[in-house]
Amino acid sequence: MTTYSLVCDSCGRNFDAARPDAVTCGPTCRQRRYREGLAANVVKAATELLHRQTRTVIAFTSTDDDLERARLRRELDAIAAEAADRWPAAA
Prior knowledge:
By secondary structure, this protein is mostly helical. The chain has one domain. 59% of the residues lie in helices and 9% in strands. The protein contains two helices and two strands; from the N terminus they run ββαα. The protein has helices at residues 27-59, 66-86; strands at 4-7, 14-17. Strands 1-2 form a two-stranded antiparallel ribbon. Helix 1 runs antiparallel to helix 2. The longest helix has 33 residues, at 27-59. This is Regulatory protein FmdB Zinc ribbon domain-containing protein.
C-alpha cells in the first residue's frame, strides 16, 4: 500500500495518508476545518446582508446627506470588524 506524506490543512503537522487528496491529519482537524468553514459562511452572509441594507439606505438618501452617509458607512465597518473579531476563522 502506498502512503503519501502530506501537511495537515488545519494544524500544519506532517502526516502520512493513504490517499493523495487527504487534507487533514485526523477527525479533530477535520471537524475544526468544517467549523471554520461554517463560521466563515456566517460572517460572509452577515456582511453581504449589511452591505445590501446600507446600499439601500444610502440610495434613498439625498445627495445633501453626506454626513449621514458617512455615519452609516462607519457603522457598517464597525459591525463588520466586530463580526471578524468574533469569528476570526472567516478573515
